[in-house]
Design a protein that fits this description.
Order of helices and strands of chain A: EHEHHEEEHEEEHHEEHEHEHE
Oligomer: homodimer
Shape of chain A: globular
Number of domains of chain A: 1
Number of helices of chain A: 9
Radius of gyration of chain A: 21 Å
Helix content of chain A: 25-40%
Distance between the termini of chain A: 23 Å
Largest sheet of chain A: 9 strands, mixed
Number of strands of chain A: 13
Structural class of chain A: alpha/beta
CATH class of chain A: Alpha Beta
Amino acid sequence: MEINTELLLGDCKEELKKFPENSVDLIFTSPPYADQRKKTYGGIHPDKYVEWFLPTTEQLFRVLKPTGTFILNIKEKVINGERSTYVMELILAMKKQGWFWTEEFIWHKKNCYPGKWPNRFRDAWERLLQFNKDKKFNMYQEEVMVPMGNWTKTRLIKLSETDKERDESKVGSGFGKNISNWLNRDMAYPTNVLHLSTECNNKNHSAAFPEGLPEWFIKLFTREGDTVLDPFMGSGTTIFVASRMKRNSIGIEIVPEYYEMVQSQIEPVELYLFESKAKYGKT
Amino acid sequence: MEINTELLLGDCKEELKKFPENSVDLIFTSPPYADQRKKTYGGIHPDKYVEWFLPTTEQLFRVLKPTGTFILNIKEKVINGERSTYVMELILAMKKQGWFWTEEFIWHKKNCYPGKWPNRFRDAWERLLQFNKDKKFNMYQEEVMVPMGNWTKTRLIKLSETDKERDESKVGSGFGKNISNWLNRDMAYPTNVLHLSTECNNKNHSAAFPEGLPEWFIKLFTREGDTVLDPFMGSGTTIFVASRMKRNSIGIEIVPEYYEMVQSQIEPVELYLFESKAKYGKT
DNA sequence: GTTCCGCATGAATCGATAG
DNA sequence: ACTATCGATTCATGCGGAA
């Protein structure tokens, strides 16, 4: 199997026009937040943020397959003591573009930035907005199953009786059996809350999110040989993870320094022979 | 000290007009979600939700003190495979009413209800939206401090012997004071992510949220003798907790069965004599 | 080679100061 | 008045050096 990694230098809303429509399985990205990273990206004013982002999401909509998924990592900042609304306005605007707002995952940052203020606590979570072109999309849930704790086990045992009664009367035969199947397994499906720490290592590249974040969504929404796109590549976390997981990937970055740094660290084409099981490194 | 609990039967947006303005310190409520609880509340169509809710928030704005806080527990439901937008539209509309959208807390439901769907995972979180009338409001952060993480944990093992000495020297020399300063550093301020399990009590009424939820916000935003309001009282969780914590409380409920049930279980007036330390039961 | 400790480092936010 | 910059606050994490 041949896995390609394609890196582009430039403004993603322009570069994306070169790509064919319906060609990407997963878009995972974390755009520069409003007024953040001014030194590298110039900073986008909160009032102009939606207007700035919409041309890009329009291109993303075009290149995404109907079965594909767009995961957007974002969080509104505090301005004058209150939360900005540009994320909510962005969601509403993207729906008008045709996007389905399927779900909102929560990334719980266990090691959030410290600080103390009279009127608020530390911000320990970010949004992971899931958008789709269609109600039907690819989702490989069994790939992200997690070990079940004893605590959950006992809980399910207690609930199983009530579950069987209620759901069998509703649906028929299916649901109650699922529950009993779970008891025999030691794996359970996760929820829409993800617990991950940010990586604050001394390396040159300071990634905005830990590798575990794109890894989880790449597992969930793609298979080996599929294509992953990150239009705001930054330090390249998404691209490195996708490559390691045997997914084709496309990374676009407007800052030359970042682009060159990623380019120097990645192999554009890799061959995988007689390997069916992937080894993703750390999980 | 005399603590009053006032219960009203009726539509809260009407009942609230009887109350003077600027008289409530904390509003904590979980309104009927759109199209949920149809049997008891009739159900509100998602498209009409904002329109339905705004007259109530207008009254809430009126009765809340300038230093007070409004905590709204809400979550959008899934309709035709995608998340509704009525919560976001509500926030935008409330801002036009004059509310400050100060913060969004996340309630991470550690034991959310089991289930399996082909296109989504179990929903394990809800929003706790904080609104204020002013940038300045009362917040008693030290009341909700939590034990610190592992750095101190390992240290506490070594300190255990010294800990004993502290108790002995409490009465006597000033040696204990140094230690207590150390121990103060074992507590840290929490974040805006709350981890609470849903309660599975055997009572007839199924509370929408666990007692720990209103308890945390009552600790954080009020003091003994302050006034807490829940305009959608339901099974009365907020009222019971407020009463136990020696706060005056006002509960409004439109369903007679709920109203009577709460009324039969609460003392309208309670006297507390010569007690300076509160015992809230479980923390 | 382990374990332990010290230290720098974050998509932060507020309030004061300066242009 | 309104924006830009700076210092103070604070904690989980992972690295490197030490015991």
